[in-house]
Write a structure and sequence with these properties.
Strand content of chain A: under 5%
Strand order of the largest sheet of chain A: 1-3-2
Helix content of chain A: 55-70%
Oligomer: homodimer
CATH superfamily of the largest domain in chain A: GntR ligand-binding domain-like
Structural class of chain A: mainly alpha
CATH class of the largest domain in chain A: Mainly Alpha
Number of strands of chain A: 3
Order of helices and strands of chain A: HEHHEEHHHHHH
Number of domains of chain A: 2
Shape of chain A: elongated
DNA sequence: ATTAATATAAATGTGCACATTTGGCACGCC
DNA sequence: GGCGTGCCAAATGTGCACATTTATATTAAT
């Protein structure tokens, strides 16, 4: 017999978790918004304990911040936090590029250039969402080339953090101009000039950091239900 | 009125968490040991729900692994996992040393040399526990010099993971010989030779990796209560 | 009129009891 | 004798009810 969608599924936890997480990552929930347990339980049509578990997991992952007896809220990162994330990314990528010296094969080079082609296309079409996503994936491509799960996981963490931040600190200029810098890094790598690649990478991140500006908070306040991707609830 | 030690303290969660965590970190619990909820609740004298929360947190931090409906156990890292952790540390430290170029002040240099003095002393006294701890703190000193919370947190994570692993994969030779390599790195840094420092660091980690050997699992099986640091329980 | 204190209501935290799943064991069958 | 099936016990997972804490609103006093 088929398991009912809303009952004892082990998938339900994951579904709720992903729904809340993507809502946070895509900046759909304004920074500082309090996520109470009871309304969330009603929105998703599940018990409060399940919401509780998901929220605790997100807090443990630093995706939400908890104040004892006062619930959880989406963190409002300071400008220093944002700089720290980008600096960490810069330091890590320097190490990655250094480790990549010598083990750069034609296959990886091909994939990098293909990816940059996609970035250029998205930039030409003024597709800002794709540009941001592809820009992150470019750096992931470099990190995954090492085949080290620890490094990849850390970088993925940094990228999701920074993707939250661009929704708060929106740069006046779009991030499209970064495509040329990506290409320059790959070019330096192709010519086995690792030091130059590292310098270009550092400069690249400094450019991103310098573009960070404080965005005015919007006063719109949509209801909770519309924030999350529609999740089927069992019919009564 | 004073809060009772075993009741509604917010400290209790943290106390149990730290007790279990340090027991894992110090290798007091053999890899593969299953940590059931009910016995743990009896050992610590707290309710099962509290143990539950702590265990879930440790699972989220990858300190324990959970199998659905079958409880949690301390993970048994493979040799590949260990190598990945050390490689990640090597890559990260290359980036750290690169970023440290130019911003190396006399104060940091002084602290590094003092620390190496402690390491040498511990090595002379054959104090293996202190040697391992100090060796980790040396690399933390380098990372903290950047003042970046993200990097420091990641390195701390890597270090705790590797400290678990030395209890499983015990090197035949002790890690005392690494002190000279630490000193060489600092010396290269002091003379502003960053490339040499990075090379020495990479070589250092390769030495550590090459010393990893598979340790025979011990057959001793102590009871749960003696594994954790004594935690006061309220008198009836 | 403003402030402070109290009471009320709502939201979080906790423990308990029950449901569900899993692993072992015994019995029976091939 | 080996293997498959079914029952039983133990451990995990879940929902519910209650305790505790916090914020708000109302009232009274200065």
């Amino acid at each position: 017999m088929m398991p009912r969608p809303g009952k004892g599924d082990p998938e339900t936890d994951e579904a709720v978790y992903k729904a809340v997480l993507t809502a946070i990552l895509e900046g759909r929930i304004e920074a500082g918004t309090k996520l109470a347990e009871t309304p969330l339980a009603e929105v998703f049509g599940v018990s409060r304990e399940r919401i509780r578990k998901v929220l605790h997991r997100l807090v443990a992952e630093r995706r939400l911040e908890a104040i004892p007896n006062r619930g959880v809220r989406v963190p409002e990162p300071s400008l220093e936090d944002v700089r720290a994330v980008y600096q960490a990314h810069r330091v890590l990528e320097a190490g990655i590029l250094h480790a990549l010296a010598g083990r750069l094969d034609a296959d990886l080079l091909q994939r990098l250039e293909t990816h940059i082609g996609w970035e250029q296309r998205a930039a030409m079409e003024r597709d800002r969402a794709s540009s941001v996503r592809l820009s992150g994936e470019f750096h992931l491509l470099l990190a995954d080339a090492l085949g080290n799960a620890e490094i990849s996981a850390f970088l993925r963490n940094l990228l999701t953090r920074s993707s939250i931040m661009v929704s708060v600190y929106e740069s006046a200029a779009d991030s499209i101009c970064g495509v040329h810098e990506h290409a320059a890094i790959v070019e330096a790598l192709a010519s086995n000039n690792v030091d130059k690649a590292i310098s270009l990478s550092a400069e690249h991140f400094r450019h991103i950091e310098s573009r960070l500006r404080l965005k005015k908070p919007e006063v719109e306040k949509p209801d909770l239900a519309s924030l999350f991707t529609p999740l089927r609830v069992p019919e009564p």
